[in-house]
Write a structure and sequence with these properties.
By secondary structure, this protein is of the alpha+beta class. It has helices at residues 2-14, 16-37, 51-62, 88-102, 113-116, 141-150, 152-156, 176-195, 198-222, 230-260, 265-292, 300-331, 342-348, 359-366, 368-383, 396-399, 405-417, 439-451, 484-504, 513-547, 551-576, 581-584, 596-626, 629-639, 641-659, 664-696, 705-710, 719-733; strands at residues 72-78, 107-111, 125-132, 160-165, 391-392, 425-431, 456-459, 463-464, 470-477, 506-511, 592-593.
Length: 734
C-alpha cells in the first residue's frame, strides 16, 4: 500500500493544477446536480417489526380510510388570569385564530378544544388539533410560519398560546452555525501553534471543507433515492470535519519533517503520502468499519446514519491523499521549516532547541506502574454512573429549551393533565371471534383491569372497529414518556395479553409514540453486545496485521473499553442524573439518547484506533530498527505525541462546537464525542498506552513466528519506500 500511495503523492504533486481544478469541477458539478434534484429527508425514527409497529399496522388496516393520516400539531391555550377558556371573549379569540389557520391550503382540518372536550378541570387549559393533508416531512415552512403568525391574535388577547407537533419545528433553530464556527476557529489556532505558521494552519481546514462539501452533497443527492434522516447529515458533518482536519494534519506534519531533512518539495510530498498517508488510509478504514457496523443492529435509520457518516470519512481520506499532495506540490515551499512564524515558535516552545525534549514521555516511562493505576482508576470511577443508564428517545420535555414554544406547550399540558398526558398508550384488543356474544363483556372486563393497573391514570372506553374484531383504548399513564415506570406499564400490559388470550381469545397489543420509542430503545439495547463484539473483534485482527503483535492490539481494545465506559458514565452523570446541566446547556435531565451508545461505539472506536495507529506505528518503526522498547516508546511519544495531542484538541474543538447547538440530540452527541476524545486521546493513548507498554517491555511486540509467516504484511509505516530511497541515496553517494 505504501508504494502505491507514494506513487499517487508523486503524481498529484507533479500534476497539481490538473488535480485541483478537476476537484473543483467535480464539486461544482455535484452542487449543481444537488440544487436541481433538491433534498428529501425522512424524519421517521422507526423500526419495522417491533411489537408497537405491528400493533400500529393492525390498527391502520382496521380503520383504513377512516381519517386523515397527515401530520398533526397541537395548539395549547391557557386562559388569562381570572378567566377560563369557557369565557365568551376567550372563545371568540380562539375561534378567530383557528378559523384563520384552517384557511391554509395544506391544512385538512382543525378541531377546537370544545370539540375535543379536553379542557382541564380548572377550565384554564385546553388544546386544539391541526391536521395537515401531508406527512410531517412534507409540511412546508410557510405552513408552520402561518400558525405562528396567526396565534399572535390569541396572544394579544392575553391567552398564552403555544404550539407543538411530532417531527414539526415551530421554533427558530438558533445560532447552530455560529457555534460550529467557534470550533473551527479553535481548530485553526491549534493548527497554527502546531505548525508555527498561519498559512499552514489554514490548509487542513480547507481540505476538510472540500471533503465535507463532496460528502454532504452526495448525501443530499442520496435523500432522493433512500430514506435518510437530517440527524444523519449533522453527524456526518461533525465527523467529516473533525477527521478531515486531523488526516491533513498527520500528512502535513510528515511533509514538513521530510523538508527539514533536505528533501525536495515533490519528494517530501511523495514520502509523506507513502508513510503518513498509509496510516490515514488505514485509520479511515477502521472508522468506516465501525460506522458500517451499525447495520448489524438491523435498524434502518441507524444504518443510514452509519452509511452517511462513512461517506464523509471516505471523502475526507480521498481528499487527504489526492488533493492535499497536489496543494502541497503547489505551495509546499511556502510552509517549510524556514517559513515558520518565530512568534508562534516562542509561544509554543517548539523551536529547534526543544526538538528533542519529551518531558511527558519521560515522566510516564519512569513511573509506569503508578501512572497506569491512577489513570485506570480515574476512568473506572468516572464510568460508575453507566451502570444505571436509562435509554430513551427525545421528547419535548427533555430536548427543547424552555424558551421554545414546543417546550412551553409540553409544560402547559403537563401542568393541566399530568406527566402521563405526554405518554399516552394505544391499546388494541384483537378478538378471534367477532360474533361471540361474550366479547363485549370480556372487553369491558379488560377495560376495568387496565384501569386498575398500577401507574394508570385513566383509560378511555373501548372503541370498536368496523369489523368488530378490534377494539381500541387509550391508556394515560401517571408518569411521563421517559420514565422507567412507563416502560414497566407497557411491559405489564403486554404480559397481560397471555392471560386474556387464554381466557377470552383476545390479544392485547400496545402502540403509540411512547410505546414505539420504548421498543426502539430496547432493540438498540439488545443490539449493543453483538455490535460491540463484531467491531472490536474485527479491529483486533486488523491491528494484529498492522503492528505484528498480539498484546498491543489487546491493550488497544481494552483501553477503548475504558474510555467508552468513562464517556457513557460522564454522559449519564450529566444528562440523566441532572448534574452540571446549566454548564452544558441542557434544558432538563432525561434518559440517554437510545442510539447514542451504539453510535459512540462505532465512532469512538474508529477515532481511538486512529490515535493508536498514529502513535504506535512510529514506536514500531523505531523498535524494528533498534530493538529497544523504551527508546521506541520515547521516540514515538516525542515525534507522534505532539501530533496526536493537536489532533485530539482539534477533534474536541469541533465536537464542542456542535455541543453548543440548540438541538439536544446533536448537543448530547457532541458532548459524548468531545469527552470521549478527551478520555481516549489524553488519558488512554497518551498516558496508559506508554505506561503499559513500558511495563510489558519487549513482550509487547511478541508474535509467534509461525503466525508472522502466514500473516500478510501491511506496510503502513512506509518501510519499503524508505529503504528504496535510502538505497538510491547510497548508490548516488558511491
Amino acid at each position: 500500500m505504501a508504494k502505491y500511495l507514494y506513487q499517487l503523492g508523486q503524481w498529484a504533486a507533479k500534476h497539481n493544477k490538473k488535480v485541483v481544478f478537476s476537484t473543483l469541477g467535480i464539486l461544482i458539478a455535484l452542487a449543481v446536480l444537488a440544487m436541481n434534484m433538491g433534498s428529501s429527508f425522512n424524519e421517521d425514527l422507526t423500526i419495522p417489526n417491533t411489537e408497537a409497529d405491528k400493533a400500529g399496522k393492525v390498527i391502520s388496516e382496521e380503520f383504513e380510510g377512516a381519517g386523515n393520516t397527515g401530520a398533526k400539531a397541537q395548539i395549547v391555550f391557557k386562559a388569562p388570569e381570572n378567566e377560563t377558556l369557557e369565557s365568551a371573549e376567550v372563545q371568540q379569540a380562539i375561534s378567530d385564530t383557528l378559523n384563520e389557520i384552517s384557511k391554509d391550503p395544506d391544512v385538512a382540518a382543525v378541531a377546537t378544544p370544545m370539540q375535543l372536550m379536553n379542557i382541564s378541570e380548572d377550565k384554564k387549559v385546553g388544546y386544539a388539533e391541526v391536521t395537515f393533508k401531508v406527512k410531517a416531512e412534507e409540511v412546508t415552512e410557510d405552513s408552520t410560519n402561518t400558525i405562528m403568525d396567526k396565534i399572535e391574535t390569541t396572544r394579544d388577547a392575553g391567552i398564552q398560546t403555544e404550539v407543538r407537533g411530532d417531527n414539526l419545528i415551530f421554533s427558530e433553530p438558533g445560532t447552530a452555525h455560529i457555534a460550529e464556527a467557534v470550533g473551527i476557529v479553535i481548530a485553526f489556532f491549534v493548527l497554527a501553534m502546531t505548525f508555527a505558521s498561519f498559512t499552514a494552519a489554514g490548509l487542513p481546514i480547507i481540505m476538510a471543507v472540500i471533503g465535507l462539501g463532496v460528502g454532504m452533497i452526495a448525501i443530499f443527492i442520496g435523500t432522493n433515492f433512500i430514506d435518510i434522516q437530517s440527524v444523519s447529515l449533522s453527524l456526518a458533518a461533525m465527523l467529516g470535519l473533525a477527521v478531515g482536519i486531523d488526516y491533513s494534519l498527520f500528512i502535513m506534519t510528515r511533509f514538513k519533517q521530510q523538508l527539514s531533512k533536505g528533501y525536495t518539495v515533490q519528494e517530501s510530498v511523495a514520502i509523506a503520502n507513502g508513510t503518513a498517508g498509509g496510516a490515514v488510509v488505514f485509520a479511515g478504514i477502521t472508522v468506516v468499519i465501525g460506522l458500517l457496523g451499525l447495520a448489524v443492529a438491523q435498524i434502518p435509520f441507524l444504518t443510514m446514519m452509519g452509511v452517511s457518516s462513512a461517506i464523509s470519512i471516505l471523502t475526507a481520506v480521498l481528499v487527504s491523499i489526492i488533493v492535499l499532495p497536489a496543494i502541497l506540490g503547489m505551495i509546499g515551499h511556502k510552509i517549510g521549516p524556514s517559513k515558520e512564524n518565530k512568534f508562534l515558535q516562542k509561544m509554543t516552545g517548539m523551536g529547534k532547541k526543544q526538538e528533542g525534549s519529551n518531558k511527558w514521555g519521560q515522566f510516564v516511562t519512569k513511573r509506569p506502574l503508578v501512572v497506569s493505576i491512577v489513570a485506570i482508576a480515574l476512568l473506572a470511577v468516572i464510568a460508575i454512573p453507566m451502570f444505571h443508564m436509562n435509554l430513551g428517545l427525545p421528547s419535548d420535555g427533555t430536548t427543547k429549551s424552555t424558551e421554545t414554544t414546543e417546550r412551553k406547550a409540553y409544560d402547559l399540558l403537563t401542568e393541566a393533565y399530568g406527566e402521563g398526558s405526554n405518554a399516552s398508550l394505544v391499546v388494541a384488543a384483537k378478538v378471534e371471534e367477532a360474533a361471540n356474544e361474550k366479547t363485549p363483556q370480556a372487553i369491558n372486563e379488560i377495560y376495568e383491569e387496565l384501569s386498575q393497573l398500577s401507574g394508570v391514570k385513566a383509560v378511555t372506553p373501548a372503541f370498536p372497529g368496523p369489523s368488530g374484531e378490534l377494539y381500541v383504548m387509550t391508556v394515560i399513564p401517571e408518569t411521563g414518556p421517559d420514565d422507567t415506570k412507563t416502560k414497566d406499564l407497557v411491559k405489564t400490559i403486554r404480559e397481560k395479553s397471555g392471560q386474556t388470550e387464554k381466557e377470552n381469545q383476545i390479544e392485547l397489543m400496545v402502540t403509540g409514540t411512547t410505546a414505539m420509542n420504548i421498543d426502539i430503545s430496547q432493540k438498540l439495547n439488545d443490539a449493543l453486545p453483538i455490535f460491540a463484539s463484531l467491531v472490536v473483534g474485527l479491529a483486533y485482527v486488523l491491528l494484529v496485521l498492522v503492528f505484528r503483535s498480539l498484546l498491543i492490539p489487546l491493550k488497544a481494545v481494552l483501553g477503548f473499553l475504558l474510555s467508552l465506559g468513562a464517556t457513557l458514565g460522564f454522559v449519564v452523570f450529566v444528562v440523566q442524573d441532572g448534574n452540571l446541566l446549566d454548564l452544558f446547556g441542557f434544558p432538563a435531565s432525561g434518559p440517554i439518547l437510545a442510539f447514542l451508545p451504539v453510535i459512540l461505539i462505532g465512532i469512538l472506536f474508529g477515532l481511538a484506533m486512529d490515535y493508536e495507529i498514529f502513535l504506535v506505528s512510529k514506536m514500531r518503526e523505531v523498535y524494528v530498527h533498534t530493538g529497544d522498547p523504551r527508546k521506541a516508546i520515547l521516540d514515538g511519544m516525542r515525534d507522534s505525541g505532539r501530533v496526536v495531542t493537536a489532533a485530539g484538541l482539534i477533534m474536541m474543538a469541533v465536537f464542542v462546537g456542535f455541543m453548543m447547538t440548540p438541538d439536544a440530540m446533536i448537543k448530547v452527541m457532541g458532548m459524548a464525542l468531545a469527552f470521549g476524545v478527551l478520555f481516549d486521546a489524553f488519558v488512554v493513548r497518551m498516558t496508559i498506552v506508554p505506561a503499559v507498554m513500558t511495563l510489558m517491555g519487549k513482550s509487547a511486540w511478541y508474535l509467534p513466528k509461525w503466525l508472522d509467516k502466514i500473516l500478510p504484511n501491511i506496510d503502513i509505516e512506509g518501510e519499503t519506500i524508505m529503504k528504496e530511497i535510502e538505497n538510491k541515496s547510497d548508490r548516488k553517494a558511491v
